[in-house]
Amino acid sequence: MAGGAAASAALAGCSGGGGEETETTETTTTGGEETETTETTTTEDSGLFDVTITQGQMPSGLDPHDHRETTTDIVVLHAYEGVLTRDAAGSIQTALGTNYERIDGENAVRFDLREDVTFHNGDELTPEDVAYSINRVVDEEVGFASPQSDQLAGVAGAEVIEGENAVKVNNSSLNPIVFSEFATYLDVMQQSWVEDNDKAYIGQNMNGTGPFQLDSYTEDEEVVLTAYEDYWQEPAAVDTLTFRAASEASTRVNQLLQGETDLIVNVPPQEVQRVTNSDNARVAAAPSTRIIYNGMRYDVEPFDSVEFRQAMNYAIDLESIVQNVLGGFGAQTGQPTLPEFVGHNPDLDPYPYDPDQAEQLVEESGYAGAEIELNTPVGRYLKDLEIAQAVAGYIDELPNVTATVRQRDFGSLVDELLAGSIEARPPWFLIGWGEATFDGGLVMEALLASDGTLTTWQNEEFDALLEQAGNQSGEEREATLQEANAMAHEQCPWIFLNQQYSVYGVNDAIAWEARSDERIDAYAMSQQ
What we know:
alpha+beta, Dipeptide-binding Protein, domain 1, 528 residues, 16 helices, Dipeptide-binding Protein, domain 3, four-stranded antiparallel β-sheet, nine-stranded mixed β-sheet, peptide transmembrane transporter activity, signal
C-alpha cells in the first residue's frame, strides 16, 4: 500500500488522464507484398508523465554493440533503433527501413531507408550510417570484436547502394533467417559520431534515432532519458524515463508498493499476492523467450562423461522446481529450443526425476565421489539463486556426488562466460539465454556450436547439423534443427531447467502489457 511523500512524488507523473488516442496507418511494400503498420498515439491533457523502471542490474554500458545482456538492451533500445523491429506479438515490422527484400540471384538482401530521420544530435540518418553499423558488428576491422557478431550469423557485411537511400547486405550463404535477425538485433549508430569519439565515451553517452535521448548517466546507479521531440514518429507520451536497479526482489517489490518506482522485473512467486492485493499496483506476466539452464563443460572432469551429465538431469525434480520454487511461473524443458521456436522437437520430453537411475549412471561414469560447485548469479533471473540451491540440493542427495552453490556477481560471471574460450568458463554454472528471433538455430549456434559465444560443448556431428540447417529453409531446415535438438537432449551438455516467465509489477496508473521477448517498451506506455 503506497503512502507518504515518496509515493505522492513518484505517482505525480502518472496522474491525470482523459487523453485522446489517435491511430495512423502506414503502408509499406515488402518483397512485392503490402504490409500495414498501425501506430497508436496517446495525447495527454496535462501534467508530466514520468516513469521509473527498476531492473535487477544496471546496464553494463551504453554502447549498443558492446554487450550481450537483456538488462542493457532494455535501456539502449529506447535511444537506438534498427532497420526492422518486432511488435508485441513478435511479428516483423519496419522501423528505420521502409522496405526489405531479397536480391534475385545473390546471397544478399536490400533495405530501403526512411527519409527525414535525425539522430539526437540533429544530424540526418544516412545509408552510410546503416552500413557502418552492420559492419561494426560483423567485421572486427571496422571497430572492435563485437560480442553480438553471432546475432547476425550469416551476414558478411553491408554497403551503400549508390545513388539510393538504401543498403545492400551481403550474406555468406542463403541465410534463411536474415530478416528475423535484423528484426531483433542491430542498432543503428551514426558513423561520424562513433569515429569521432573513443570507446569509453561511447559507452557512457548515446546518440541514436529512438524516441528517447540521454539526459544523464551515473554508472551502476541510474540512467535518465527524456522524450526526443524530433522523433520521426509522434513523440513519446512518457516525458522522463529513469532506469535504476535493485538486485533483491523484495527490495524491488517494496519500492513499487511504496511508490518509489513504477515498473519492476522478476516479481517472485511469494510476492505476487502482495502486489495483486495492493492499492496501487498489479502483476503482468508472459512466457518469455528465455531458457534457464546449467552449462557443464565437456572438457573437465566429471562433466566430460555423457553418463555423468545424464545423471545430473535425472537427479533433479524439475517438475517440483517449477511448481514450488517458481510458483508455476515457468515450464520444464528437455532441449535447447523452446516450444514457440523454429526447430523445437515435439517428441522430446523433459528428463524424469529418477535418483536411482542418476546414482547408477554416476557409477558407470567412473566419477563416484565427485565434488562439484554450481556458479550462479543472484537477482538476474526469476528465483535464480533458489533454482540453483534446489538443483544442488537434489544432486547432493545422491550418495555418490557432493554439490554446493557459489553465489556470483552477474557481471563477473558474464565476463568469464564471454572470455572467448571454453577453458576460461566455470565448469558448472547457471545462466539464462533469451532469443527474441524465436529461432532455435540461433540458440544452438550461440550456446552449443563448437565456436559458439557461450559454448561448453564440442561435437562435430552436431556442428555439421547446424551448418546444414544454415543452408536450408522451411520444413527441411526445421527437420534438421529437430535432429540437432534430439542429439543435444541425448548428450546432455546442460542440465535442462526451465523456460522463464517474465513477471512484472506495474503501477496501476500506467497502461502497459508484458511482451514475450522481455522488452520493456516505454514508448508503448500511456497513462490510465
